[in-house]
Amino acid sequence: MRKLLLSLALSGTFLSAMAAENATYYGVNAGLSDVDEQDKVGMGISANIGYQFNKYMGLEVNYAYFSEQNLYGTVTPATPQISGSSSFFMGAVKGMLPINDMFGLYAKIGAGASYASLSGEAAAFANGNSTAWTPATMIGGGAEWKLSDNFGIVLEDMVYVASSTNGLGNSNLLSLGVNFRF
């Protein structure tokens, strides 16, 4: 009987602690992006919506867009003028490590799809354009400073990897943004 009461008390404590942390959140970030093997830095944005199950774990849907960049020699050395942009649509698991009530670190890992759009004067491009959807993964981490229970500032560094680069390569986004909880 004691074991049953103890297990019920511990379960109730655990479930109430989890319920206190449950929150739906959304966020937007903007920052600097780069593409592998390119010496140019562009702009990138990301948006996410997620559900935090407890203070240590959440699930998230993420969208990231990397602005058009001029790419050089990615198809053949004879095609120096190619421009491209890419988007990533991801689902991710988010692990969180709260340092205190206001500050925490997190890591994300996810999978989804990448959409790349290239244009240029290359024989490989029909009518000067090429677009493709490919499977993709993402990994990265960041920090959040909570200014209130509903609002926080985030700094994160995410790496997006398309399974078939189609000339764009892996994309990295170092960004600053905000999270809203409701």
Give your account of this protein's structure.
There is one protein chain. This protein has one helix spanning 2-21; strands at 23-35, 41-52, 57-71, 82-98, 103-120, 129-146, 151-162, 171-181. By secondary structure, it is mostly beta strands. The protein has one domain (23-181): Porin. β2 and β3 form a beta hairpin. Residues 8-20 have low confidence and may be disordered.
What is the gist of this entry?
The protein has 182 residues and is mainly beta.
Produce the secondary structure layout.
Blueprint (H helix, E strand, L loop, with lengths): L1 H20 L1 E13 L5 E12 L4 E15 L10 E17 L4 E18 L8 E18 L4 E12 L8 E11 L1
Antiparallel strand pairs: 1-2, 1-8, 2-3, 3-4, 4-5, 5-6, 6-7, 7-8
Helix content: 10-25%
Determine the structural class based on helices, strands and strand pairing.
mainly beta
The main sheet comes to:
8 strands, antiparallel, barrel
N-to-C SSE string, H for helix and E for strand: HEEEEEEEE
Mean pLDDT: 79
- The CATH topology is Porin
Strand percent estimate: over 45%
CATH hierarchy class name:
Mainly Beta
Spatial order of the strands in the main sheet? 1-2-3-4-5-6-7-8
| Total of DSSP H or I helical runs spanning 4+ residues | 1
- Distance between the ends: 40 Å
Shape: elongated
Gyration radius, rounded? 21 Å
Number of domains: 1
CATH architecture: Beta Barrel
Uncertain spans, ≥5 residues at pLDDT below 50?
8-20
Q: What is the strand tally?
A: 8
Task: Write a concise keyword list for the protein shown above.
eight-stranded antiparallel barrel, mainly beta, Porin, 64% strand, 182 residues, single chain, 8 strands
